[in-house]
TrEMBL record:
It holds the Pfam family Pentaxin. PANTHER family: NEURONAL PENTRAXIN-2, PENTRAXIN. The gene is Nptx2. This is NPTX2 protein. SMART domains: PTX.
Length: 290
């Protein structure tokens, strides 16, 4: 500015023109300084807004992380993480539950669950376990007018269970690869036993465990005619054959014994397609329903 004024002063210009130019230069200088001050204010505001926004984002993220942490610790929407049931009210190919955990290699197992269904004909598929190369690794199904069947590695045993009366029933199935021996319990009583069901076949690990649908491929290709309709709870799996005494005690509510490989807990069961989770009746209330 000073240089410019000096140049103007040294020029042979009439004094009134020189004054006019100096006034103009003074105005320009003030405008520039004003603009610089505005930009500085905007920069400061922007920084404050960015900081506030960052803080807000961090607060929201921290709240989400705390919720995830709660869920991982097993905190549940239910009174206790196991006090819920899965409801599958329609015979469709899109309502189902999925167990997040998979199975290890098994040479024996016990599966127990409470279920209630009045579906006809047949209650459908309470659960299925599929692995690559074998969609029917373990399946419990009552399809059409057939008896309830247990499939292991696509081999079939018919089970003498009768559970489509709309009341709660406690069901347990045991199996061992040794001679393919199986047992079927209803409401604590052993109603059937047999052998030669996929003998010496180990249950393959790493598959998908679905509640309410029969899988034709791993995790999918459901058929509405084979869907389970009703409610289920306390689906537990152990890696051994439970004693008949233990099964009776679970069924009559004397003991609560979670599965050692698949326990029934809220954060291990996802539901899809309109399937829902609800607080379940107490064990004693289910027992009175028999």
């Amino acid at each position: 500015k000073h240089q410019l004024r000096a140049n103007v002063s040294s020029a042979a210009l009439p004094s009134d023109l020189r004054e006019l130019l100096q006034r103009r230069l003074g105005d320009l200088e003030r405008q520039l300084l004003s603009k610089v001050a505005e930009l500085e204010d905007e920069k400061s505001l922007l920084h404050n807004e960015t900081s506030a926004h960052r803080q807000k984002t961090e607060t929201a993220l921290n709240a989400l992380l705390e919720r995830v942490s709660e869920l991982e610790k097993g905190n549940s929407a239910f009174k206790s993480p196991d006090e819920f049931k899965v409801s599958l009210p329609l015979r469709t190919n899109y309502l189902y539950g999925k167990i997040k955990k998979t199975l290890p290699e098994l040479y024996a197992f016990t599966v127990c669950l409470w279920l209630r269904s009045s579906a006809s004909p047949g209650i459908g598929t309470p659960f299925s376990y599929a692995v690559p190369g074998q969609a029917n690794e373990i399946v419990l199904i009552e399809w059409g007018n057939n008896p309830i069947e247990l499939l292991i590695n696509d081999k079939v045993a018919q089970l003498p269970l009768f559970i489509s009366d709309g009341k709660w029933h406690h069901i347990c199935i045991t199996w061992t690869t040794r001679d393919g021996m199986w047992e079927a319990f209803q409401d604590g009583e052993k109603l059937g036993t047999g052998e030669n069901l996929a003998p010496w076949h180990p249950i393959k690990p790493g598959g998908v465990l679905i509640l309410g649908q029969e899988q034709d491929t791993v995790g999918g290709r459901f058929d509405a005619t084979q869907a389970f309709v009703g409610e289920m709870s306390q689906f537990n799996i152990w890696d051994r054959v439970l004693k008949a005494e233990d099964i009776m005690n679970i069924a009559n509510c004397s003991i609560n014994m979670p599965g050692n490989i698949i326990p029934w807990v809220d954060n291990n069961v996802d539901v899809f397609g309109g399937a829902t989770k609800w607080p379940v009746e107490t064990c004693e209330e289910r027992l009175l329903d028999l």
